[in-house]
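hi! just following up on the protien thing from before. the input was this:
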Amino acid sequence: QHRIVAKLDAVFAEIDKIKKLDEIKLKSNNFLIQSYLDNIFESNNNLLKLSDCCEINPLKSEVKNLDDNTEVSFIPMKDLIINNKLATPNQKRRLKDVKGSYTYFSEGDVLLAKITPCFENGKIGIASNLHNSVGFGSSEYIVFRSNENLKNEWLYYFLNRKKFRIDGSKNMSGAVGHKRVNKDFIENTLIPIPTIKKQQKIISDLESLFNYSKEINKIIIKKQIEIDCLKKSILQQLLNISMVDAA
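and the predicted 3d structure came back as:
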């Protein structure tokens, strides 16, 4: 038993070292992405308030002429996936069932969770592939509709920064567990707006970088799962051997 335990301790210590290194790689990968985003958006050129370049929370009156039985897309908070640029719906509802208490948005609008901990966790996405180009979702969404000088992908990457989430978490109000980011903070946050051509060039670079980063994360996570399976397999094999020896 002492011999088996000593072997297990030695092998598992090496495995734990590998896991810790992989965890460091994951954190480093995510840190590099955020650093790159900060370098892009820390420019002091052509700064505008979000309220001056976006329509925030468009009015439901835009769909007042639609029949109440019209099917529209529905995106609850659980379907707004972290680090997925496109928020695509899995559900449809009739307009009359959602227009009362849910948040309205349309194709291409940017959705941002305003309540803790969803805001801090980075729940954000661009509404895409909406049925009849109309969507409704959680009452805890802030909806942004960019104007002609601001691409929605540029806005998405700006809002999807850790620095923005940290600043926003310092500007929340409400009861513990139900705090929401303040409307004034959102409206008065400054965003740099270069030309549309430059926005598109940087967005293209960001797409490549994010896709590459996701692939790296997938490889590391897969390796961690395989290591856990290896750990279980080693343990099982040694236990089987010890049982045979005992017999």
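The longest helix spans residues 196-246.
The two ends are 14 Å apart (CA to CA).
cheers
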